[in-house]
From TrEMBL:
This is Nucleoid-associated protein, YbaB/EbfC family. One of its GO terms (molecular function) is DNA binding. Residues 10-37 form a coiled coil. Keywords: Coiled coil. The keyword Transmembrane does not apply. InterPro entries: YbaB-like_sf, YbaB/EbfC.
Length: 125
């Protein structure tokens, strides 16, 4: 039969697991809601991406068609997607840091591998 101290330890363990589960649930919600927005220097192109670098919106100033050639517009859009993806990757890394503070990525996955290796890359989703 378990002693009172063993029951208290078990209850404490269950509370800790419940707290960690709730913390993970809140973190998942925050991760799902993450986004970043990048705007070109001239203000003509604004892009918003989600947590995996997926493009959510592209806003173009109506004057963009008179100011930029099609290839310049394309390059500007791609650049803003890259900037926004880097921003959201940084936010995701910051959010995840408490969960994986000292994980030896290079030991597990090879030289040059860090937490950033698992984040979205600019221009990919």
């Amino acid at each position: 039969m378990a002693s009172d101290e063993q029951w208290r330890l078990l209850e404490q363990l269950v509370q800790e697991v419940d707290q960690q589960t709730e913390q993970l649930r809140r973190m998942q919600e925050r991760m799902r809601d993450l986004s970043a927005t990048a705007t070109s220097k001239d203000g003509m192109v604004t892009v918003t991406v989600g947590p995996r670098g997926e493009v959510r919106t592209i806003d173009l100033d109506p004057r963009v068609y008179r100011k930029l050639s099609p290839s310049e517009l394309s390059d500007t859009i791609v650049a803003q997607i890259g900037d926004a993806t880097r921003q959201v990757s940084g936010e995701l890394k910051e959010l995840m840091a408490p969960l994986v503070p000292d994980l030896p990525f290079e030991d597990l996955f090879g030289d040059g591998t860090g937490f950033e290796s698992f984040l979205p890359r600019p221009g990919t989703s």
